[in-house]
Structure formats: C-alpha cells, structure tokens
C-alpha cells in the first residue's frame, strides 16, 4: 500500500478556516494553532526577524539604544506587528526576541569598532559594554530559567550565546587597549590604529 504525502495546498486547506477566523478576530493573543506551530516556523521567523526585522529587532533595538541608551522592550518590538484590520499579524515569542538581542550584540560590537576613530570613543565603548553585558547576562539568565531542559536540542541558542560572548570580550579588550595605549602614546591616530588592529584580530563569525 502506497501512502501519498499531502501537498502543501492540502495541508494549508486543512487549517484555512481556522487561519481565516484568527485573522478576522479582534484578539491580540496568539491562538492555540499559532503557538502549536511556532516551533515549525521559528527558524523562518527569526530569519525574517533578521531580514525584515533587522528593521525590527536588530536595527530597531540598535536605534533605540542610540536614542535612549536602553534596551528596547519586547512589547515595543511587537507593537508594529499589529494593525487595526488584523490585530495580531505576527507573534514574536520571548525566545525569538532573545535570539534577536543576541544578534544585536554583534551590531554593537561593529559600532564600537567604527567609533575608535572618534574623540568620544571611550564613552561609546563603555556604553556599548554596558548594553552588551546587560543583553548577555540577561539573555543567559532568562534562557537558563526557561529553556535549560531544551538546551541539548537547541544548538542555536548555545551558538548565539558563544558569539555574543566573543563580541563582548572583543569590546572589553578594545576598551582596555584604548586606556593603556592612551597613557603610553600621545598620538591619537597611533592609539586608534592599535585598538582597531586588536579588534580586527579577534573578529567573530556572523551569528
């Protein structure tokens, strides 16, 4: 007996009525169906969060950091994904939000690298370090509480945290090098080049 695999059209048709009903509803809460299938679309959701929401999580949180020197909260990330016609267009889970913040640490590191030639470099590096530490420690703490039982099955979380830690250590090294070399050399351009080389010598892989 040959069992035929259902086509995507057939699978979608099975849930079409439920999806249509949800899109026409007034609720802002995720439906059971949305929660049930979040794990299947999770990777695609994060990639969309990285591509479209590089306008959203990575870029938006980076802009928020520049403007407020603070971390953009999840509800502010979720807010643009509502509309009057369809109250909840897309549900971003706390897990996906934290993964997006892990990506932000890399953007902060690049900002620190580019700031080395600025007279405000020491201040910028300290600001970046403060935010990176908050994200890394906060992310690690929350994931330990919520996802520790899933750690053996969630390599993505572990990999992103490793990259975040590398970015953090790199900026720490840059801040230290800037302080030490500034006391040894009077030429700002020479100091900046030393720091830049120190940063580039430990460039982490993209997350």
Sequence-ordered SSE layout with sheet pairings:
Elements: H1 8-23, H2 32-36, H3 38-51, H4 54-68, H5 74-78, H6 94-115, H7 121-147, H8 155-184, H9 188-200
GO molecular function: sequence-specific DNA binding
InterPro entries: Translin_C, Translin_fam, Translin_sf
Pfam family, one: Translin
Can you characterise this structure?
- The protein is mainly alpha-helical and 207 residues long.
- The chain has one domain (13-200).
- The protein is built from nine helices and no strands.
- It starts with 7 loop residues before the first helix and ends in a 7-residue tail after the last helix.
- Mean pLDDT is 70; it is low at 1-6 and 143-151.
List its traits.
mainly alpha; 207 residues; 9 helices; elongated
Largest sheet features: none
**Uncertain segments of ≥5 residues (pLDDT<50)?**
1-6, 143-151
Structural class: mainly alpha
Number of helices: 9
Report the sheet-strand fraction. under 5%
Count of all domains: 1
- The radius of gyration computed from the alpha-carbon positions, rounded to a whole number of angstroms, is 21 Å
Envelope shape:
elongated
Helix content: over 70%
Number of strands: 0
Instruction: Name the average pLDDT.
Output: 70
CA distance, first residue to last residue? 45 Å
Order of helices and strands: HHHHHHHHH
């Amino acid at each position: 007996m040959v069992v035929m695999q259902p086509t995507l059209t057939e699978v979608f048709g099975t849930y079409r009525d439920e999806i249509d009903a949800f899109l026409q509803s007034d609720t802002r809460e995720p439906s059971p169906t949305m929660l049930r299938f979040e794990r299947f679309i999770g990777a695609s959701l994060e990639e969309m969060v990285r591509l479209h929401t590089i306008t959203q999580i990575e870029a938006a949180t980076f802009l928020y950091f520049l403007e407020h020197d603070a971390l953009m909260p999840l509800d502010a990330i979720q807010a643009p994904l509502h509309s009057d016609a369809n109250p909840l267009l897309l549900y971003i889970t706390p897990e996906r939000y934290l993964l997006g913040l892990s990506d932000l640490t890399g953007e902060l590191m690049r900002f620190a690298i580019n700031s080395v030639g600025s007279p405000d470099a020491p201040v910028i590096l300290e600001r970046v370090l403060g935010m990176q530490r908050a994200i890394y420690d906060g992310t690690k703490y929350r994931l330990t509480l919520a996802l520790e039982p899933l750690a053996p099955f969630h390599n993505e979380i572990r990999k992103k945290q490793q990259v975040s830690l590398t970015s953090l250590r790199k900026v720490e090294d840059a801040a230290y090098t800037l302080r030490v070399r500034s006391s040894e050399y009077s030429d700002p351009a020479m100091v900046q080049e030393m720091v830049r080389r120190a940063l580039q010598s430990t460039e982490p892989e993209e997350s």
